[in-house]
Amino acid sequence: MKYVIVAKSAVILIFAAGSLCAEDKSVSTRLAIKAGKIVTMTPGAEFATGKNVINNGVILVSGGKIEAIGPASSIAIPQGYTLIDASDRWVTPGIVEAHTHIGTEGGFNDMVTPINPELRIDDCVNPEDVGIKSAVTGGVTTIHTMPGSGTNLAGFTVIIKLDTSCPEKMILREIGAMKIAQAYNPERRGGDLGRTNMGMSWSLRQMLKQAKAYTQAWQEYEQGKRKEKPEYKPELENMRKVFSGEIPTIVHTYEGWGVMQTMRMFNDENQLKVIATHTEGGGYMVGAEAAKRDGVSINVGPFLWEPISWNVEQDNRFHCVAAEFYKAGVKNLSINTDSVGFGDQEELAFNASVSARLGLDDQVALKAITINPASALGITDRVGSLEVGKDADIVIKKGSLLDPTTPVDLVLINGKIVYQRKGSGLVVKQAAERSREKE
Amino acid sequence: MKKNRIYILLFLSWAWLPSAGTGEEITVIKADRIDTVTSGLIENGVIVIRGGKISAIGADVKIPSTANIIDARDKTVFPGLVNPCSVVGLSGSPGGEPASNPHYRIADELYPFQDVYRRILQAGFTTLALTPGGNGIAGQGAIIRPVGLPPRLLPARRMAGESVDAGAGQTPGGMLITESGLLMIRFEANEKAKKVITEAFESAKKDIASADPKIKPLVRALQGEIPTFVRCGWPGAALHLLPLLKPYEKMKWVLVAGPENYRIAEKLAKAKIPVIFPAQIDFEEFTRNRINVPRILAEAGVKIACVPIMDNAEGHEDFLRQMAELVKYGLDKETAKKSMTIHPAQMLAVDYRLGSLEVGKDANLLILSADPLEVGVKIHQVMLEGKIVYQAP
Amino acid sequence: MHKHRTNCRFSIFNFLAVLLLCCSAVARASSPGNHGQDGRATAAEEKMTAIKGGDLYTITGGIIKNGTILIKDGKISGIGQNIDIPKNAEVIDAKGKVVMPGLVAATTWLQGLRSSREINKIADSLDPFDFEVSLALASGVTTAFVTATSSPYRRVQSSGENPIGGTNAVIKMTYGDLDNMLVKEPVAENVSISNRQWLGKTNFLLNLRKAKDYLQKLAEYQKAKDKDKKLEEPKKSPELDPYIRLLRRELPARLEAATADDILAALEIVDEFGIRVILEGCLEAWIVAQEIARRGVPLVITPREKQEPRKDISGPSGSTMENAAILKKAGVRFAIVPQVPVFGLGAMAGRDLMALPMEAAFAVSGGLDEQTALEAITLTAAEILGVADRVGSLQAGKDADIIILDGHPFHYRSFVELTLINGKILYDKKQSTYFSHITHDN
Q: Beta-carbon neighbour count of residue A96 at 10 Å?
């Protein structure tokens, strides 16, 4: 135990130490992007009103954040700013993935006991993972990467940015969410304690009860409402973040009964923010119930439709999971790839395209890979839309993110170019070059 | 009433004895409803049975003075049911690659004293065709009376190597009505199966006079002397099968089909191939839409025979209810009745003696509490060749 | 009397008219031609069909805007912009739609042919009622290459001992119609010389050499046999037959070759023996594009298949989305198929043959021009399969295998609305349950 605390503290200290990585001084941290079309994904603003879409716009980036954004006519491009001329392209926020397993090493499934509140995957972040490099080529800039679903409570996830040039700065939030799995996988392999669904539910409820009490005890103590100092249990410390509302819970769940079970246990009984993920196998049948609950968001994928041979409605139709949830009124809807290796993380936008094809509104599909997952994870202060003050995570591409015929041309993370496609034809003029031109 | 009961008991005691032959016993059944199946319904009618056969039937028939009268007032008389394709009481199918074994005979493998036959008889089935398993040309099926009698009661004849066919005019009944009642083929769509069938029939064509037990049954099938049943599960496979059958025009083909075969109903009707099908309501693939396959086939003009959904005692006992359900979901009532009596008899080529209540045919009949397709109908008595072999308690 | 005579004349006229009608009815009823799904000769075989008003993506002759296609007896009988449509023709309105040839899948794994029993002849095992056929029609795939294997992961019924095996065929997705389903069997020799099967490549080369020797001896024998009657004809075992077919260039060999090494090794075989070859996989073909082009070897590629570059090779390695574009530039012909060439990959939509155009769309994102990308799922695929005389483009004389879409095939929202094979509508999105509930109102 002690060793773990020390190790963790060491890691935290390293992060806290900050700039241990060499800053690339040759590239200015100030950028201007001339954009043919900016789609901001601003929450609340609908595409049609023009608030979300800026034609012929400009974005100014400074210190890794968006400094200004608006029509070109209203923003002058200052001197000293590197200029990216994307006037024949679209500019969108970096894509946010809310459910993946890439970027970590050795964090998949710790199978000894079904409930593991003490485990956290941020210690396993691996910046060398090839999956990260290829993810960026698909415009993915922020990922929520997790332990697997072999156990009921696998541990805690991590949210990272895919800029590996400075690994120490990759972590956006070291405790991302509590990872729970409630259907199928844990039933098959989770050891002999609580092997059935009944057993799993019991174990989870016990843990939740315990964690809730622990959180309350410490809250009361810290607020002075309780004299006696509660017992310190390091394995429950991260559970406090869950019950204090700081972080959400993400639950791997399937089918109508499964999604209902998830919502009841986490949202209804414990007032926790919960992301029900996967949900295929008929989960959309309880979409109306999900829509009623503000604390519930739905993260669909990698299964995007119900196959006709075993869909719940048995009507010989291909039902799109995301579209059905949206139809039922679910507002916070996101899409994932559940990538485990190399080769599919970069196709998150295509998963959104497939859902759009199968009936999901285009605009909702775009939100489902940007602002919605950010909102579900509680990181909209940083990412998910192009707004002043937010991280400069930007994707430049000819055409919509949903269009498979055009590649991503350039990706910025925290205002830094992390990917530039060879042959993109994008002109990036350094500040010095620009000032020389002016002369 | 009491008098009749005594006579019934007397008949019961004689039920298991092989009949002496010409039998001057005369039995008369008087019933409110006699459903002949082929010639309509006779109300307040009479059936006269001599020597195990129907000698007269109608509303104005004279009742001989020496007749034993069975009073079936308030009852319905219906022909005994015929199951044209069953494996009840047989050991399992061999499986394996398609092969040609026309010399294999179910008749050599009967175990007649099984309970299951008694139960099937009591469920109203007076005739059963037992068919071999095995892929390709599986062998010869036998047509039996489901009674617990030794297969053949003429051992002398059997030792002489002759086939025993208790055909028209011949008595007594052992269990077997005919040893070589049909040729059974099990077909799957692949090159080998097609080859086995074509090669077998082509070689038989060249050798019509052969007495070889491997060739003779094929020749009989070729000439149409015995029907040829083909079990073919999928309509795709049936499409492969149909052109194979074309060159053999004299053959009497019967298709034992799987549920999806409704998709080729019209093709089957055009090829004039009758179909044997379980009495079940199916679901359209991947949906909950119910489809009444026997109805679809019948309406397309295919002659159908229905068999119990499960080929076991319970299945047979539940059969009339299954048929009633088919009617509930739209199968024409008259067609339903035919598909459990005269149609299977025709497919087995034993309609000269079985399958309907007509003069000259065996007195195989059921005395029922109501129309056979009424839900909840009870079987009161089962008569086999003039003898009551089952009396409901 | 007068009345009677009039009646007589009238009745004779009637009689003749009726006779004429009967004759024509008999003639029509007994006219030959394809029989429809239900076995009856349908009047549609006599009548013409016209598809009118759409943008015709002919593949061979550019896009004809607001064009017309005439169909007669299952073939395209006319195509152009201002063609007269016969009066009694059935007209399909394709205004605002895209009209294309039915898609051609250069590789397909059909569940129905993956039985546990050995299938030696696909023609004898085709099931036109297989639901995968329905899914193919709904996806616009009308022609497909199929192999008979007992598992989707073992591509060839062979062993290291005999690397040539199994059978293959080109089929059409003629739902319910067995007679018109098979196009050709076989169209290639299935060969497996991957490193997974020990001695596979060794035996392949050995047998090729044996076959080459035999053919040489046979040629010598043919020349000398008239002069020397004592000469014996050289013998060979039937095992060599497929190799002889290869050497005689009767059929191409379909070989899997993913890495640059494998591809070059395959090209060496082409150089040594002069056999026709089709390469599948070809992940690293971009690295040796010129070499491939020089031998004129066609490929079957999968743009979305990814392989990270190897760390132990200093040269280029791994996959790139630009594979197709690079190959095109070098002059290599290729067909495109998805990673899992099945219809209906469980719940993972967008990765299988039901999304075939999307695979080609990704090639476009890698720099491939749209025309070549379209060819890769139509005409070039048909050429590679040896059936381009019948399918793969909208041209007069070819089979009327046509799909009508509500948008450009590479647009992610486009759906197939109608699929015709041999001039018959076999899929109508509005009538089918699969996608009729999905309409794009925006």
A: 31
Domain over B81-347 is classified CATH 1.10.10.10: no
- A405 and chain B: CB distance < 8 Å anywhere? no
Residue C105's nearest CA partner among C170, C189, C150 is C170
**pLDDT reported for residue C44:** 46
> Residue A249 in contact with residue A177, Cβ under 8 Å?
yes
Q: What confidence category does residue B151 fall into, taking pLDDT thresholds of 50, 70 and 90?
A: low
* A260/A136 same-domain check: yes
In this complex, do C355 and A354 lie within 8 Å of one another by their Cβ atoms?
Answer: yes
Whether omega before B172 lies within 30 degrees of 0, making that bond cis, reads yes
For testing contact with chain A, the best of B286, B289, B291 (most A CBs within 10 A)? B286
Domain-located, residue A6? no
User: Greater confidence, A312 or C57?
Assistant: C57
Sign of the Cα torsion B143, B148, B151, B153 reads: negative
Does B290 reach chain A within 8 Å, measured CB to CB? Answer: no
Kindly report, residue by residue over B181-219, the tens digit of the pLDDT: 999 999 999 899 999 999 999 999 998 888 888 999 999
Split at pLDDT 50, 70, 90, the class of C236 is: confident
C95 and C67 Cβ atoms separated by less than 8 Å: no
State which fold the C103-391 domain adopts: TIM Barrel (3.20.20)
Residue C227: partners with Cβ closer than 8 Å, 6 or more residues away: none
CA distance B102 to A21: 85
What pLDDT digit, counting tens, does each position of C93-125 carry?
999 999 999 999 999 988 777 655 667 889 999
Question: What percent of chain B has a predicted confidence (pLDDT) above 90?
Answer: 67
- Please report the sign of the dihedral spanned by the C-alpha atoms of residue B328, residue B331, residue B335, residue B338: negative
A324 to chain C, any CB pair closer than 8 A? The answer is no
Residue C386's alpha-carbon distances to B352, C390, C420, in angstroms, are 58, 9, 21
Match domain B2-79+357-391 to its CATH number in 1.10.1040.10, 3.20.20.70, 1.10.3720.10, 2.30.40.10.
2.30.40.10
* Residue of C182 and C26 predicted with greater confidence: C182
Contact, A110 vs A147, CB < 8 A? yes
CA C310 to chain centre: 35
Span B161-186, pLDDT tens digits: 444 444 433 334 578 888 889 999 99
Q: Are strands A65-71 and A95-100 parallel, antiparallel or unpaired?
A: unpaired
Count the helices and strands in chain A (H runs, E runs).
Answer: 12, 20
Interchain contact, C39 vs B240, CB within 8 Å:
no
Q: How far apart are CA A364 and CA A369, in angstroms?
A: 9
Evaluate if residue A16 carries a pLDDT over 80: no
CB pairs under 8 A between A and B: 12
In the predicted model, what is the mean pLDDT of residues B133-149?
A: 89
Beta-carbon separation of C348 and A343 below 8 A:
no
Q: How far is A281 from chain C (nearest CA, A)?
A: 9
Full domain range(s) for residue A150:
96-377
For A401-409, what is the mean pLDDT? 97
Inspect the interface and report whether the beta carbons of C346 and A402 lie closer than 8 Å.
no
On whether both A326 and A416 belong to a single domain, the answer is: no
Mutate to test the interface with B, among C119, C125, C132, C149 (most CBs of B within 10 A): C125
Name the residue of chain C whose CA is nearest to A402's CA: C412
In this prediction, residues B372-378 reach a mean pLDDT of 94
Assign residue A282 the CATH number of its domain: 3.20.20.140
- pTM comes to 0.88
What Cα–Cα distance (Å) separates residue A433 from each residue in A60, A83, A439, C442? Answer: 18, 10, 10, 45
Is CATH 2.30.40.10 the classification given to domain C43-101+392-442? yes
Q: Is the pLDDT score of C3 beyond 50?
A: no
